[in-house]
Design brief:
Elements (H helix, E strand, L loop, with lengths): L1 E5 L3 H12 L3 E5 L3 H8 L10 H10 L3 E4 L2 H5 L4 E4 L14 H13 L4 E5 L7 H12 L6 E5 L9 H7 L3 E4 L3 H11 L6 E4 L1 H32 L3 H9 L20 H14 L5 H14 L1 H10 L6 E5 L14 H11 L3 E5 L4 H8 L4 E3 L2 H5 L4 E4 L4 H4 L3 H7 L4 E4 L6 H5 L4 E3 L8
Parallel strand pairs: 1-2, 1-4, 2-3, 4-5, 5-6, 7-8, 9-10, 9-12, 10-11, 12-13, 13-14
Bound molecules: nicotinamide-adenine-dinucleotide.
GO molecular function, one term: UDP-glucose 6-dehydrogenase activity
InterPro entries: 6-PGluconate_DH-like_C_sf, NAD(P)-bd_dom_sf, UDP-Glc/GDP-Man, UDP-Glc/GDP-Man_DH_C, UDP-Glc/GDP-Man_DH_C_sf, UDP-Glc/GDP-Man_DH_dimer, UDP-Glc/GDP-Man_DH_N, UDPglc_DH_bac
Pfam families: UDPG_MGDP_dh (PF00984), UDPG_MGDP_dh_C (PF03720), UDPG_MGDP_dh_N (PF03721)
Length: 434
């Protein structure tokens, strides 16, 4: 199949690379010239395990192209996938500017019958608007069908998820479009959920809202554990073994971040509000998460009294391990709060420093060596559970820091292990070791 992808970010690029890997002829289009110049050289602009190899392989085999020219991408495609960003507006609703621009450009350049598939996360009703928009502009002799095919990949394991996802959701009102999409995905052997467009759009928001709820739930239980002297690790394990609950997404910590959960939860609250439904549960989930992201600095203030003049090592910048994405990461909140409190910050991350620097600038120092961050630090804040952070021997904190005080936002170390070192260790939902 000849596939064009509108938007070559995390979702568009990974989708394009994976579809070319299973034999399709894929042209990725983006309005960002610099991004496409880099990609044309075989260099991925994002970090994702396994991406670079597959990118180079499929480019070399002539199945994967990158362009900023919409005519080249769209005019001859059998299927066009929209994977542009849907950031949040000030009121929390989804900003559909890029989706609308992409739909308009597609409509102006298509020359043959095509199925337009939306992978971007969009509010219920958006695909219908996309169809109307394209219908108004497209050439009269060209037939267009629209389908919703929300994306569930996780950053950090995006390639794996594309090939081994739990399900593929196809929402369309048209049997032919459903068939074309089923044919596209059949080689992956992943269960397919076929539904109407509105339900498909809702599945994406409901999935993310549920996962965010699970995180805020366990974080609230952790906060209570601290007050009643229980241990969240044991509590989470004890409840998670119940198959109806499950162990995944039950790690207490400093909240969710990234480019999806924060904006999608807010967008669903707005979407519900638009139909006069106040989504109180999800509002509480968001509130708990905001509180949780600032929890470590609160704990530090409580411990030290004042953070003024203290040197902080911030360990981990990306919103989760194995990605260089720092959007809405708890680390950003921690860095800004520490600066406000008059502390100086040196941040370590193995790969996310360039992205963090774009957002935080020179307000803090950066390093890609964990030891450099810890040298003479008064306090260490663990914001991301990278392997190299989780496995850092505790002796290193003792050797490098002034008087080791660790605020662990990801519960990387077991309390038993910490107890045998002269370390002050304050984590989430567990006894403080002072
Ligand atoms: P991104 O910001 O990484 O990439 C979006 C790309 O679209 C950018 O490169 C931008 O230049 C390009 N673009 C903007 N307007 C364009 C246009 N008119 N034509 C062509 N390209 C255009 O975004 P992302 O993280 O890949 O997310 C894309 C969508 O997928 C969002 O709706 C997001 O919510 C959803 N999603 C993301 C993830 C994720 O983990 N990142 C997972 C599931 C779903």
């Amino acid at each position: 199949m000849k596939i064009a992808i509108a938007g070559t970010g995390y979702v568009g690029l990974v989708t394009g690379v994976c579809l070319s890997e299973i034999g399709h002829d894929v042209t990725c289009m983006d309005t960002n010239q610099q991004r496409m110049d880099t990609l044309q050289k075989g260099i991925p602009p994002i970090y994702e395990p396994g991406l670079e190899e597959l990118l180079r392989k499929n480019m070399a085999q002539g199945r994967l192209y990158f362009t900023v020219d919409p005519k080249q991408a769209y005019s001859n495609a059998d299927m066009i996938m929209i994977a542009v960003g849907t950031p949040e507006n000030e009121d929390g609703s989804a900003d559909l500017t890029y989706v609308e621009q992409a739909a308009e450009t597609i409509a102006r350049h298509i020359q043959k019958d095509v199925v337009v598939v939306t992978k971007s996360t969009v509010p219920v009703g958006t695909n219908e608007k996309i169809k109307q928009m394209i219908e108004r502009i497209k050439p009269a002799n060209v037939h267009v069908e629209v389908a919703s095919n929300p994306e569930f990949l996780r950053e950090g394991s995006a390639i794996y998820d594309t090939f081994h996802g739990d399900r593929i959701v196809i929402g369309t009102e048209n049997d032919k479009a459903a068939e074309v999409l089923e044919e596209l995905y059949r080689p992956l052997g992943i269960p397919i959920v076929k539904t109407d467009i509105r339900s498909a759009e809702m599945i994406k928001y409901a999935s993310n809202a549920f996962l965010a709820t699970k995180i805020s739930f366990i974080n609230e239980i952790a906060n209570i554990c601290e007050k009643v002297g229980a241990n969240i690790d044991d509590v989470a394990y004890g409840i998670g073994l119940d198959e109806r609950i499950g162990l995944r997404f039950l790690q207490a910590g400093i909240g969710y971040g990234g480019s999806c959960f924060p904006k999608d939860t807010k967008a669903l609250v707005q979407l519900a509000g638009n139909v006069q439904h106040q989504f109180e549960l999800l509002e509480a989930v968001i509130k708990v998460n905001n509180y949780q992201q600032s929890l470590l600095v609160q704990k530090a203030k409580k411990f030290f009294g004042s953070l003024y003049g203290k040197r902080a090592a911030l360990l981990g910048l990306s919103f989760k391990p194995n990605t260089d994405d720092v959007r809405e990461a708890a680390s950003l909140v921690i860095a800004r709060q520490l600066l406000q409190e008059g502390a100086s910050v040196i941040a370590y991350d193995p790969i996310a420093v360039p992205n963090a620097r774009r957002l935080l600038g020179s307000m803090i120092d950066y390093t890609e060596q964990i030891e450099t961050a810890l040298v003479r630090a008064d306090m260490a804040f663990i914001a991301t559970e990278w392997d190299m952070i989780k496995t850092l021997p505790l002796q290193q904190y003792c050797d490098l820091m002034n008087n080791p005080v660790i605020f662990d936002g990801r519960n990387c170390y077991s309390l038993n292990e910490v107890q045998s070192y002269p370390i002050t260790y304050i984590s989430i939902g567990r006894k403080e070791i002072i």
